Write the C-alpha cells for this entry.
Amino acid sequence: MGRASVAALNKEISDRFTDLSEIRIIAWASDLHLHPPGGYPFPFTGFGGIYQYIDCSRQYMLCLHEINALTKRPELIVLGGDITEMGREDEWMEFSRIMNLGICDIPTIPVMGNHEHLQLPEKERMKELWNEIRCPGWPDLDNQDEFFYSVIRGSIKHIVLDTVKLPDTVMSDRQKAFLASELSYSAYPILIYQHAHIMPAGNWTDGALYLDKDMIRLIHECPNVLGVFSGHTHKPSLWKYRGKMYGTFPSVGYSIGTCTGWGGIILNKEGIKGVFYKELSGESYDDCIGPRSQEGRFVFMEPESFEKSPLLNPFFWYRNPDPLMRE
Ligand SMILES: [Fe+2]
C-alpha cells in the first residue's frame, strides 16, 4: 500500500547517501488524533467536527505502511503527541488495535501532546490502560499529568519532554531540573522531542508557542544537543539556530494550511544530515481548504537562519549584536 508512494523518496535518500550503512533515520509521526472508529458515545462537537471528513485511523495505518516501505529502515518512530483526540480510553484502544495489526515493527517512543491531557482517565485506570496499550520498550507511566523521560538507543540520547496543556504553560520546576540533569550528564549526542513547538511554524498554532526562557537557555548551552523536534503545528517547518536544528513535522491526522504526512531525521556520525517530510498519499483533509487529494510527494527541508529572522523574539532568544556573527 505504501510502497509506490515511497519509491521516489527511497531513490532520493539513496542518491544523497550512497552508502546507506553510514546513515540512521529517526522517523516521526505525530498528531494522529485517533478517534473511536464507531464514533463517540455523545454528540461530537470537537475541532469543527473534522472527523466527519477524515478517518484518522486510515491516515495512521497508511503512515505506518509508508514508513515500513523505506529502504533504509528507521531505527525508531517518535510518536510526537496528540496520539489521541482527547486521551480517552476508547481512543487509546484504537491506537492499540492499529499497533497490533503488524503493519510495522519498528520500535516507537511516545510523547504526550496537549490533546492527551484533555480527558485522561482516572489515575489508577490510566495506569492499567497504559499497561494494556503500551508498546515494547515504552517506559512506565510514572506521572500521567507530566510524562517526561529519556532513553539511549544506539549511542543517541533521546529526551522526551511534556509541554502539557496549552496555551500559557511553561515548564515545571520538576521537569526543568530533569532536563538540566539530562543535558549535563550525557556522553552522547542528544535529540529532544516535545509536542509543542518553540519556534514559529507559520500558522495559527504559533499563537501558543511554548516559550520558557530557562529551558531555551539550557538547550542552547548544551553542545550535545543536535536538535529539537515537535508536532502540534500540523505543518512542517525547519530552522537552524546557533548550530542546532529546530523542526516541526506535518500531522498524520489533518493538516493546517499544508499537507498531512510524517517525517524523518537523517543522521550520520557527524550529526543531522537531512530533515524531510513525506505527504501521505490519497485522500486528506486540511483545516483551511477542506477535503483534498495528495500526490504523496516528499520534501527535504532547507533550514532557515532563526538568528537573522524577524520572527526571533529577543525576550527569549539571543541575537548576536554583531550582524556579521549571526549564523
Ligand atoms: Fe494536534
